[in-house]
Design goal:
The chain contains ten helices and twelve strands. With 287 residues, it is an alpha/beta fold.
């Protein structure tokens, strides 16, 4: 079994930055369309030392409501929650200056790198007096149940891609090793634990009944010689969960261990839980 779990960043908040924008009056032009146009132009250009071509942001009414709450003194997480917007990542920027604004990467300064984050997809605005609050975010859009088989296969493929190359996991070096095969009993073991964590809003290798992967695999009818488990939370894509596992020495060691010959993987979603989505991989070698 893997060692102490390292919690995945369920909702990764980007740094909250403030920028002073250079202001140019634009008659008969509303601030929000102008700002969105300029932000998307900067995303295409990129910041100094960073490539552009980031996808354009869409305006989102809930993010504009969150921006209004920021103007009233709320923290970003409070504002997003009150607006009913669940974010995977988000940030706020305060532009200072009267009237409509023409933004450039030079006028944005250090805030340019916030607005050009490739994973951001939506923005909201709230102008008040000589300031405009901007909230940019990537919404929490978890996969649906119809994608379960596809994503389980994707996780297995990602594991086998990792195992095909030598890798260092913390202080331990692993040689490339043989690929794993799918096992239905290990998949059932993973699905049961993912569903339990999602339903009861916890994140731990230990189940609510105190069980660990050894007992859970045995209960699923898997007679194991070696067994291990990786868990992650908050990631809406298999690739992101895999990156998190490879970044943890204990979880990476499970991925690379030659002691394992097969595995099963699953995810479960509960929008009302803390992390929203929970991933489990169970590795094994049968007797």
């Amino acid at each position: 079994m893997s060692g102490p779990w390292r919690r995945a960043a369920g909702i990764a908040m980007l740094a909250l930055l403030a920028a002073t924008a250079q202001v140019r009056a634009q008659a008969n032009t509303s601030t929000q369309p102008g700002l969105l146009r300029d932000i998307n132009a900067v995303r295409q250009q990129g910041c100094e030392g960073q490539p552009g071509k980031a996808a354009p942001l869409r305006e989102n009414a809930a993010l504009s409501a969150a921006a209004a709450r920021l103007a009233g003194g709320d923290r970003l997480d409070e504002a997003l929650k009150a607006a009913g917007y669940r974010a995977v990542s988000g940030a706020q920027i305060i532009l200072r200056g009267a009237g409509a604004t023409l933004l450039t990467r030079a006028s944005l300064g250090s805030s340019c790198s916030v607005l050009t984050q490739a994973d951001l997809t939506e923005a909201g605005f709230y102008p008040q007096a000589a300031q405009t609050w901007i909230v940019v975010a990537a919404p929490f859009t978890p996969p649906g149940a119809a994608q379960a088989d596809e994503l389980q296969a994707r996780v297995l493929a990602l594991v086998n891609e990792a195992r095909a190359k030598p890798r260092r996991c913390g202080n331990e070096t692993f040689a490339a090793t043989r690929p794993l095969h799918f096992n239905a009993k290990l998949q059932a073991t993973a699905a049961a634990h993912a569903s339990d964590m999602a339903r009861y809003n916890y994140f731990d290798h230990a189940g609510r009944d105190g069980s660990h992967v050894e007992e859970r695999a045995s209960s699923s009818g898997y007679r194991w010689r070696a067994i291990g488990e990786n868990i992650a939370a908050g990631h809406t894509m298999a690739e992101a969960a895999m990156q998190d596992w490879l970044g943890s020495a204990e979880h990476c060691a499970n991925v690379m261990s030659p002691a394992f010959t097969e595995m099963g993987a699953a995810f479960a979603v509960n929008n009302n839980s803390s992390a929203g989505i929970y991933w489990v991989k169970v590795f094994g070698s049968a007797r």
